[in-house]
Amino acid sequence: MANNEKPLVIITGASSGIGMATAKLFSDNGYPLLLLARRKGHMEELNLPNTICAEVDVTDADSLVKAIAKAEEQYGPADLLVNNAGVMLLGEVHKQDPAEWQKMFDVNVMGLLNGVKAVIGGMVQRNTGTIVNISSIAGKKSFPNHAAYCGTKFAVHGMTECIREEVADKNVRLTTVAPGAVETELLGHTTDKGIVEGYEDWKKQIGGAMHTDDVARAIWFAYSQPQNVCIREIAMAATGQS
Ligand code: NDP
């Protein structure tokens, strides 16, 4: 184990968007990192010090556990997991391929639970640790064309609160961060061109989406509180988003 002052931080979905911005912020503040996503090259290109980049699909619990064990050997136990990996495939329910619903539930719900399970036992044992789960404003209110995506993000809110209650007396914190629209690659996976165009127009109408750094700072804020203070939820959006 290396003699680092700062403990290990794990970020899923660090190959782009919010995860990548969060990786940079924590690295700038001296944290050793384990970055997880499928596009390993994107994470390696960041060239961050004291950082392990692992090609991991969060739906594969075994490879998640193995990557974490390897990083903990090098940097010591993880003190923060940012469960950020996610996919958004918008569509009208009567037209959408159920495979797209399945994919969102696999990654946004099962993948997030896989992350929690991989670290929480150790945190409970050590009597300290923090898990930040990335939900969405779509986990608090409905939007047209978002049925399955909203379902996954409402689930993130509910699951995070349940798990928080389970481990509160073990000094382990759970936080839900729920952003509104952020400028990232997320919309790019939606196949319905009309919905994509409508979403882009809506972003213009609200005066533009947030920047990934805005969300990274919220994650930082929650984590940087003293361990006896748990920020349970941060809901945030561009000021112009209603
Ligand atoms: P991006 O598409 O830019 O990033 C998504 C990240 O998740 C990528 O790094 C991607 O990496 C990773 N990912 C996707 N599927 C998997 C998988 N199976 N295994 C591992 N990693 C995976 O979008 P955002 O940065 O916007 O999204 C981050 C989170 O923020 C998501 O949970 C999203 O739902 C949430 N969010 C985003 C909002 C927005 O407007 N952008 C608003 C509210 C919440 P790779 O493809 O390399 O595996």
Automatic annotation (TrEMBL):
It comes from Fulvitalea axinellae. Pfam families: adh_short (PF00106). Belongs to the short-chain dehydrogenases/reductases (SDR) family. Keywords: Oxidoreductase, Plasmid. InterPro entries: NAD(P)-bd_dom_sf, Sc_DH/Rdtase_CS, SDR_fam. SUPFAM superfamilies: NAD(P)-binding Rossmann-fold domains. This is Oxidoreductase. One of its GO terms (molecular function) is oxidoreductase activity, acting on the CH-OH group of donors, NAD or NADP as acceptor. PANTHER family: DEHYDROGENASE/REDUCTASE SDR FAMILY MEMBER 11 (PTHR43115), DEHYDROGENASE_REDUCTASE SDR FAMILY MEMBER 11 (PTHR43115:SF4). The keyword Transferase does not apply. It comes from the Bacteria.
